[in-house]
Every structure is written in C-alpha cells, then in structure tokens.
Amino acid sequence: MADALLEARDVAKHFGGVKALRDVSLTIRRGEIYGLIGPNGAGKTTFFNCMTGLYVPDGGGFIFDGAPLLADAPHQAAERGIARTFQNIRLFANMTALENVMVGRHVRTKAGVLGAMLQNTATKAEEAAIQQRAVDLLHYVRIEDRADDLAKNLSYGDQRRLEIARALATEPKLLCLDEPAAGMNGTETAELRELIDGIRRDGTTILLIEHDVKLVMGLCDRVAVLDYGALVIEDVPAVVQKDQRVIEAYLGA
Amino acid sequence: MKQWLNPRSTLGITLIVVALVALPFVAAMGGQAWVRILNFAILYVFLALGLNIVVGFAGLLDLGYIAFYAVGAYVYALLASPHFGLHWPFWVILPIGAMVACFFGVLLGSPTLKLRGDYLAIVTLGFGEIIRIFLNNLNAPINVTNGAQGITMIDPVAIGGLKFSGTTQIFGFSLSGPQKYYYLLVALAILVIIINLRLQNSRIGRAWQAIREDEIAAKAVGINTRNIKLLAFAMGASFGGIAGGIFSAMQGFVSPESFSLTESIMILAMVVLGGMGHIPGVILGAVLLSILPEALRYGVGPIQMALFGKMLVDPESVRMLIFGLALVLVMRFKPAGLWPSPERKRELQGDA
C-alpha cells in the first residue's frame, strides 16, 4: 500500500502465560484518523506500548514511514515521528505547562552542554525558538493562559490538552492518543473532538484508542477492533458497527 | 521598594563584590584558621553544586559522590608532587582531574542506569567505598597511591612566579597563602555557579528535570534517558574532580582518610538542607554546614565559660550534638530546605 504510514506485522506479546497480543497486523494510512477499540484488557495499550518502544514485542514488528521501527528504543520512536499520550496522564508534574511543552522540543533541537555553558548565538536562538514554539502550541490547544502554572495544578481536561501539546511539540507524523476522552464530560469531549479533527486537518495522522464508541465512530476514518489480543476486524466505522463479532465482543458472547 | 538591595542592581553587585573582596581580611582578624574555614566552605560549594546536578536536577540519589573528589585530589597529587617526580602546572592538571573524574562518573553511571532511588543509593555508596579502598591499597605491587600514608609535599598552585603558599606582598598589602587561595576559589566558584545556572535553564537542564519527574514520559517525548543521565553523572563528577584538585594543592597532602562515606553524606546533607535543585539554596546549605561545625568548635567553649564560669561539657562532643540537632530541626520545619526553589516550595505545600 503506497500511502501506508504504519504497518504492524504479526505483532505478538505475551506476559507469562497471558497472550496480550496475538499476531496483530494492521495498517494506518497517511492522513487518516484510525481508531483502535476493544473491551478492557483486549490489548490496546499493549499494542501502543509495543509500537512506541516501551515494550519489546515477542514476535512481528512495525514498519513506519518506509523503514522498520527498532524495538526497545522509545526515544527513537519519537525521533522517527511517533508521539503519544498516556491513558493515565503522565505529565512532568512539577514543571510549568510551558516547560512541559518545551521538553517536547528536545528531540527536534540539539544544544548540548557546551552550548548551554557558552550561551553562543546559535544556542540562544534555538532556546528562543523552543520557547516561541511552545507558546504557539499552548495557544493551539487553547491553554495559553495556564502557561506558567505547574502541570499538576491544571484541571483534568487541561492536563489532557497539555499532554497533546507536548506530544505535538515533537513534530510527530503519527500522533497516538490513549483514551484521551476518559473521564471527560460531554462538552469537554466535544471540544476534544474538535481539537483532534483540527490536528488531522493540519496534516498529522492520528491513532486513537478509545472506549467512547460514539466518539470513535463519529471521528475515525477507519476502525480496528481488538478482542483477547487478536484483531477482529479492520474497516470503516459503518461496517465495523454492524459486524456480528464486534457486537459479541462488546456485549459478551 | 528595596530596589537598592536587589542583587541584580549595580549597587547590589558592587556591595557583593566589596563583601567578597573584604571577607578574607575580616576573617583573618580571627586568625588564618578562619580564612581556611572560608576556603573549605567555598570548596564545599563546588562539591554541593556538582552533586546538585545529579541529585537535584536529575533526581538520581548518589551516596558515593566523594569518590570523584578523591579522584580529582589524587590526580593532582600524583602529577604535582615528588611521589612520581612530576610537577605539572595546575592549569594543566585541573582539566585532567576533571576529565578523569568525568570518566569515573560515566563508569559509575553506566551500570546503574536502570536503578533508581534506594537501589541506586546502595550502588553508589559501594562505589564510593571501592574508590577509597583502592586508594588505601594501591601501594603494592606498584606504589601508585602510597596507601594509607597518603601523598605529601604536593605543589601549591602557582601562576607565573606567584606561588599560592606563603605570604606575598602585593600593592602594599600582605596576602597570606589561604587568602590567595580564597580569591582563586571565589573566581572559580563564580564560574561554576554561572555554568550551573546556564545548565539548569537549558535544553539539557529541562531534560534532567523531565527524567526526575517521569522517566517513561521523558522517553516517550524522545529524550535519550541513558545518555542524559550519564551526562548528569559526568558533569557532577567533573565538578567534584576540580574541587578535589584544588583541595590537594591547598592542603599539600592527601590521604584516603579524607574521602570517607561521612563526607559523601555531608555533601548530600548540604544539598538537601539548602534546597535540592535550587542553586542559591545549595550554596547556602554548603556554606552553613561547612562553617557551622567550625563555629561551634570555637564557640561552644567560650560560651560555656561565660554562662557557667566553667567547662561543663567537652566542646568537641557537644558540637556535633548541636550540629545534628540543627539538621533535624531544619528538616522537620523546612522539609523543602532552607531556601527551596519556588516550585519545590509549592510542591510541598499541600495540594494533590
């Protein structure tokens, strides 16, 4: 497939006797919003962790943007252009919102110890650019007025937004959101949906893990369903919704 | 309101400079011993700032920090003493000492990268002891460190014809050895402080902080946590190495005894008590904790004489008692340290 951004090939992962992922293969195309759903414990987050290098898959692998992804190298996944958020938000709690986003620029900047010590023109210019970009991103997710607050003092919804801003700071080609709407009320979910749609329009492919089926079906171009670590179906929402196996997986057979 | 007291104003800077220049002369009124105490306080500022990079910035608990001080001290001792017959100038040896210490920092860092907290503390503690034991026993089959006797007659620092030992007359002023070292130390301390401030507010400094806050999230945004942690160990160790070199030159004598675990703990106490991760706090902690025991040494006796007319308790035993009590009280009532960073203060004041 010419427009594939990420291809998972027979990805397997087990924890002791539990098979968390059974040879999952799927393809995410450039520019789409791709939904990954499934009941609790179906292996969605495990899939995420394998892809972003936090887990080493026991079998199979990933082709990202034309080249294989190295296992066990999370920082390289970020460098290649995969950014993620976490199901249970993981911000740098005692840094300000602005600093959190500035850390996100780390992988796209290069000032080292020597530059920091000497404060040469290049380092100063880079630092100013980092700050400007971080401010812009806070604007983008609309929490610019919280820039100087510690991350942990932000409201739940704002923390989710900040995590997305931090992920966007790494200039990802693929943005992976792990249950971004968890714990949000109707209004917040609607705003989030708008934000995700906007990010896609600005050219970033999105992989979305979500429990909120309504959100996924409304937002995603294509959806994959995992159950007991195996891929059940991968198709457009209209087809997935009517699939008997999906209904069974969700309602319990 | 108190604009004129602002340390960034011209007057503020002038006052600080005048105070720093005058200090050794004021201290000398109480005897040269006080100037030496002052010098050691600055040396501890070096060490505390170096350890602060590892513990305060990157959040890696290091209980063997004194080992790098020892490495720096011995590098200087070996390259500028009759022991090997080498007498290299200090500006050559100090960078070498920093580099050797840096190498040992990486050596300690690399096997401990996956460890955190208590586990890391145990490993670093062991490392510190290993270095000390090596220094103690590397006198056979080849005599490298001269064992427990240590190395004597180490060259003092010399710039051009100006030797830092003994008294010199400059512009009609009589400058003692310790006073000269004081000015050298202050100059280096200013440099070290500037480097630390710049590192903290840099891309690298933020990466250290991010690792301290959440290592997994730091990895996920593309920080190579392995390299950045090693960098923290290496930087911290280099500062320790430089401090060690100056210690060697100043004392003219080194032995393994100076690099005990107690010293590591003392430096850690300076960092924690001053305000972990906050440079002004760490400086304050280092100055206080290095001067307080000495002040007590000279103060406890006379105070007893004045109050009770006789010596009730041996000053030597009561001084460490008071010192320990002071540490307990500070940690009880100011858990974030005497001068914590604004963020850290907020962190400890309630909320979720």
Secondary structure topology:
The complex is a heterodimer of chains A (253) and B (352).
Chain A: E1 4-15, E2 18-29, E3 33-37, H1 44-51, E4 59-64, E5 67-68, H2 74-80, E6 82-84, H3 97-104, H4 113-118, H5 121-140, H6 156-168, E7 174-178, H7 186-201, E8 205-209, H8 213-219, E9 222-227, E10 230-235, H9 237-242, H10 244-251
Parallel strand pairs in A: 3-8, 3-9, 6-7, 7-8
Antiparallel strand pairs in A: 1-2, 1-4, 4-5, 9-10
Helix pairs in contact in A: 3-5, 3-6, 5-6
Chain B: H1 10-28, H2 32-57, H3 66-79, E1 80-81, E2 86-87, H4 90-109, H5 117-137, E3 158-159, E4 162-163, E5 168-170, E6 173-175, H6 177-200, H7 203-213, H8 215-220, H9 225-251, H10 261-275, H11 279-308, H12 315-333, H13 342-348
Antiparallel strand pairs in B: 1-2, 3-4, 5-6
Q: Mind explaining what this structure looks like?
A:
The complex is a heterodimer of chains A (253) and B (352). With 253 residues, chain A is of the alpha/beta class. Chain A folds into 2 domains: 4-81 and 172-251, P-loop containing nucleotide triphosphate hydrolases (Rossmann fold), CATH 3.40.50; 91-154, no CATH class. Chain A has 10 helices and 10 strands. Chain A has helices spanning 44-51, 74-80, 97-104, 113-118, 121-140, 156-168, 186-201, 213-219, 237-242, 244-251, and strands spanning 4-15, 18-29, 33-37, 59-64, 67-68, 82-84, 174-178, 205-209, 222-227, 230-235. In chain A, the strands form 2 sheets. Chain A has a 6-stranded mixed beta sheet, with helices on both faces. In chain A, strand 1 and strand 2 (18-29) form a beta hairpin. In chain A, helix 3 packs across helix 5 and helix 3 packs parallel to helix 6. The longest helix of chain A is centred in the middle third of the chain and has 20 residues, at 121-140. Chain A is globular, with a radius of gyration of 19 Å. The relative contact order of chain A is 0.18. With 352 residues, chain B is mostly helical. Chain B has a domain at 32-274. Chain B is built from 13 helices and 6 strands. Chain B has helices at residues 10-28, 32-57, 66-79, 90-109, 117-137, 177-200, 203-213, 215-220, 225-251, 261-275, 279-308, 315-333, 342-348; strands at residues 80-81, 86-87, 158-159, 162-163, 168-170, 173-175. In chain B, the strands form 3 sheets. Chain B has a two-stranded antiparallel sheet with strand order 1-2. Chain B has a two-stranded antiparallel sheet with strand order 3-4. In chain B, strands 5-6 form a two-stranded antiparallel ribbon. The longest helix of chain B has 30 residues, at 279-308. Chain B is globular and about 60 Å long. The model of chain B has no long low-confidence stretch (mean pLDDT 87). Chain A binds chain B through residues 52-54, 74-79, 83-84, 86, 90-96, 99, 102-107, 109-113, 115-117, 119, 123, 126-127, 130, 150, 152-153, 166-167, 169-170, and chain B through 195, 198-199, 202-207, 209-210, 213-214, 216-225, 231, 235, 343-344, 346-347, 351-352.
